[in-house]
Amino acid sequence: MQVIAIDIPEDHGYLIPVGDLHRGDRHLTQRGLDKLKGYLEWVKERANAIVFLMGDVLNVASRDSKSNPFESQSGDDEYAKSVQLFKPYARQIVGCITGNHEQRMYRQFGFNPLQPFCNELGIQYCGFSAVLKIRIGKRADRANEYEQTYWGFAHHGNGGGSTLGGALNRKTKLQEVVHGMDFYMAGHDHNLIVGTRNILLPKRDKIVHQRVHFIDTGSFLDWDGSYAEEAAFHISKQGAPRLRFDGRKRQHDLHVSI
Asked: How far apart, in whole angstroms, are the C-alpha atoms of residue 211 and residue 70?
């Protein structure tokens, strides 16, 4: 597990987790690509916005997988197009974790294509999971100090998500890995949902309330003709969540938009 530290000096900041792109799958249509590019352009226009890649960037279909290799581009093609897609935005992509689709190639050949992908774009490759430490609101009166610090945990996810409740339950289980985060995020099941829970935590000499967000990070694939339709899964909203962090004094507030 990698720990990624990000400093955003403005009085607020944004994070957009992007995953389950499945570059190479024919169900990633121009509609999905245009939606993704809209998010990326939005980030590029803002110095206080960052992106984190949640895995399954590449489809990596094989005869032994649920993904149909006859409905996918070649591996070289999907890799090259992924590099081309993200290159203009690489400066604001703070990290990348692997997904089960990239792990297929690793299990078969001992090679994960996301490692050279990240190296080529200068993105930190984090393996299976990452902790994000995000400091917001640089203080003018003290060097290298910020008003607010937010902590998050990212994993690609696993298991089914055929119901919204089941999908969200999977995200809450991430608390068993790392405690005390402000947000937990995972994908894999292609749902775009968020749930919140208020918890009590000891802080210095008192007990404080903390709101925790559990985030399912969505997908960009069309439903028609896909494995999701074949399995009679519900149609999920296409896209990614947007996290907004407040960086003002005594304003520890995180809002998630979907």
From this structure: 45
180 vs 239: CA distance, rounded Å: 27
SS3 content of the chain, % helix, strand, coil (to 5): 30, 35, 40
Estimate to the nearest angstrom the gap between the alpha carbon of 238 and the chain centroid.
14
Helix (H, G, I), strand (E, B) or coil at 244: strand
Distance, CA of 241 to CA of 258 (rounded, Å): 5
Classify the C-alpha dihedral 31-35-38-44 as positive or negative: negative
CA dist 66 → 75, 161, 245 (Å): 16, 16, 38
CA–CA separation, 183 and 153 (whole Å)? 7
- Specify the pTM: 0.90
b/e code 209-218 from CB counts within 10 Å (16+ = b): eeebbbbbbb
Question: What are residue 160's phi and psi, to 5 degrees?
Answer: -75, 160
Query: Tokens at residue 135, please?
Result: 């400091």
List the structure tokens of 141.
């009166």
Interatomic CA distance for residues 149 and 75, integer angstroms: 40
Domains parsed from the chain with CATH numbers: 2-257 (3.60.21.10)
HEC string of 26-43 equals CCCCHHHHHHHHHHHHHH
What would the pLDDT profile of 173-228 be if each residue is shown by its tens digit?
A: 999 999 999 999 999 988 999 999 999 988 888 998 899 999 999 999 988 877 66
pLDDT of residue 109: 72
